[in-house]
Amino acid sequence: MTTERNKATAQRFFELFSASDLDGVMALMTEDATWRIPGKKELTPTAGVYTKERIGRLFRRMVDNLAGGLRMTVLSSIAEGDRVALEVTSSGDLKNGRLYRQEYHFIMEFRDGRISAVREYLDTQHAHDVWIREG
Asked: Would you give per-residue pLDDT tens digits along the chain (135 residues)?
């Protein structure tokens, strides 16, 4: 039953994100939660391990730069023990006219029904081209 509850919580996380309810998103995470974004820091400024507070600030900056939020769609999920693996897509239009169409794989770890750690895998080149590249 715990694996199904964790899958439902993970699904809810992306529903809340799609609704730009970042307070709701953050409430699903433990206070000591961590979030890892891959990449080499010198190439991808957002790469690294984030605390809950710091990832919340990044989420808010993202949403503030989007014309209508970021729609996230869970394509599939698998749960075992305290982990949920998800395939997710996102779609959002930046206020500067760039289109963000991302594909992800997330590994979420849970503790006491809340998200305690996330490892996010995504197309870092696309993220760079849309969010960071000049011109």
From this structure: 599 999 999 999 999 999 999 999 999 999 999 999 988 888 788 899 999 999 999 999 999 999 999 999 999 999 999 999 999 999 999 999 999 999 999 999 999 999 999 999 999 889 989 988 775
CATH number of 2-132: 3.10.450.50
Global pTM? 0.94
The string of DSSP codes covering 1-50 is -HHHHHHHHHHHHHHHHHTT-HHHHHHTEEEEEEEEE-S-TTT-TT-EEE
Ordered by start, the domain boundaries in the chain are 2-132
Partners of 76 in the β-ladder: 87
Sheet containing strand 99-111, strands side by side: 48-51, 29-37, 114-122, 99-111, 83-93, 71-80
Distance CA 59, CA 64 (A): 9
